Amino acid sequence: MDLNSEFDRETYNHLWKLAKTQQNETGIMTIDEFEYWERFPQNFSDPWFKTLCHEYRHLRKEELPNGVEFGITYKSVSINPQTYLKYLLNIFTLMGGTTQRAELSHLNECIKNETDIVINCSGVHSRTLKEKTDNKSVLTYVIPHDEEEVILGGTYEENNYSTDVDYDAAARIIQRCLAICPDLLPKDQAQLTIKGYGVGLRPCRKGGVRVDAEWITSEKISKKILIGHNYGHGGAGFESSYGAANHLIKVMKGMLNDL
Ligand SMILES: Cc1cc2nc3c(=O)[nH]c(=O)nc-3n(C[C@H](O)[C@H](O)[C@H](O)COP(=O)(O)OP(=O)(O)OC[C@H]3O[C@@H](n4cnc5c(N)ncnc54)[C@H](O)[C@@H]3O)c2cc1C
């Protein structure tokens, strides 16, 4: 199994546990996930997570929506990022962590005399720290959230960093989602009730995820600093998070032990 799948495996198990034990606090809930193919895929082989995700199976013909030739289903989780990120920040502060807002043009700018370790999780803005990012087209998804909300998406556009709402793209997303999931529209309604529009950027990176560490000698304070890198998670940063973070910690501990 490749490293990214290992990250996802560890994370799935952890998120599943959180959903089962702390749903309200974390904003994570278990869901039935469905993936559809408009055309029957040639030489389909089951994904690596077939043995990980609970109740993985191929959909029966009568379960497929119109215009869909093949599909799979399995148990997954849905995360409400607002609730979940608050939960994470709360844990961080309870453990003694503090936060500070600053805009950096180089990693060196966060190095002070007392700094021994820096962890670079610069995600979507890693390009501003001299890293290159790369985005790729259209994808359609319907994700149930808590509080009876459903997220509809999406787009996948290379090098588009605009966070302005594109209402034409939004109308096309709604059309595509209704085509695969007509039950979204209550029988007594002609249109969906839209609670809000959101735009997000997936922090992709040429070459894929970077989870590694390096020693640098800071000119500012003439000592060696261990820099951990954990970014470029693209459209999968939540689902790989615990696995990637634990891997980085292992790598960094190994480098510190070798000193
Ligand atoms: C529409 C959409 C749907 C998605 N769906 C999923 C999904 O189903 N499953 C999934 O796992 N993931 C999904 N993702 C991807 C997920 O949101 C990202 O992978 C994840 O947020 C990446 O987290 P990160 O912390 O690595 O990076 P980011 O969220 O980009 O965070 C990086 C942080 O570093 C800060 N920063 C960067 N550079 C600087 C600088 N120079 N100075 C100061 N601060 C800086 C930024 O301000 C930011 O706060 C989706 C994303 C989008 C947009």
UniProtKB/TrEMBL annotation:
Entry's Gene Ontology BP terms: D-amino acid catabolic process
Known cofactor(s): FAD
Record flagged with keyword Transferase: no
Superkingdom of the source species: Eukaryota
PANTHER family from the UniProt entry: D-AMINO ACID OXIDASE, D-ASPARTATE OXIDASE
GO cellular component: cytoplasm
FAD dependent oxidoreductase domain: residues covered: 133-248
Alphabetic keyword roster: FAD, Flavoprotein, Oxidoreductase
SUPFAM superfamilies noted in UniProt: FAD-linked reductases, C-terminal domain, Nucleotide-binding domain
Single annotated GO MF: D-amino-acid oxidase activity
Gene3D superfamilies: D-Amino Acid Oxidase, subunit A, domain 2 (3.30.9.10)
Family indicated by similarity: Belongs to the DAMOX/DASOX family.
Species, as recorded: Gigaspora margarita
Protein's name in the database: FAD dependent oxidoreductase
